[in-house]
Amino acid sequence: SDLFSPDGKYHKQIRIEENATGFSYEKLFQEYLTEIVSEVWVEDPYIRHVHQASRCLLYNFLRFCEMLVKGPCKVKTIHLLTSYDEGGGRSQQLSGLEEIQQSLRNYGVTLNIAFSSSIHDREIRFNNGWVIKIGRGLDYFKKPQGRFSIGYCDFDLRPCHETTVDVFHTKHTKKM
């Protein structure tokens, strides 16, 4: 639903139902990733699940970066603010992020990584003014049934966890 908050900001809410499909990152973000987007901020605390949380989150972030590299935007800088893996996965987390950073460099994209122990908000900001807050952060996809099940590769076919997506525009104000 499209609505305006009391301070005149544009606000749209998308509800992703349990087991819904058709919500790949491309589908969710495409209308906000205009050609003028050159800088992206991702705040996503480190989410821990039993099933190899670090790999799960790293792959989601990598998939998000792939979408940015494919365009139509010309992203030059990505800022990631996250928290350290509390468990034994910290070195895996760091080496994974460094590998993504190195790989992005081949595409002319700089990845700045910062860590915070107090971060709890999950939001993605683009320098064209759009702010997207996803209740579950980038980690809203369910684990696939198996490695050869539909939806393993194509995330439009991957069932989702229930979550809410709030979209804001920072520069949007109502005309008086």
Automatic annotation (TrEMBL):
Domain of life according to the entry: Eukaryota
Gene Ontology biological process terms, A to Z: midbody abscission
Gene Ontology CC annotation, any one: midbody
Pfam short name (any one): MIT_C
Gene3D superfamilies: MITD, C-terminal phospholipase D-like domain (3.30.870.30)
CDD domains noted in UniProt: MIT_C (cd02685)
Residue intervals of the MITD1 C-terminal phospholipase D-like domain: 22-169
Alphabetical list of PANTHER family matching this protein: MIT DOMAIN-CONTAINING PROTEIN 1
Designated name of the protein: MITD1 protein
Organismal lineage: Eukaryota, Metazoa, Chordata, Craniata, Vertebrata
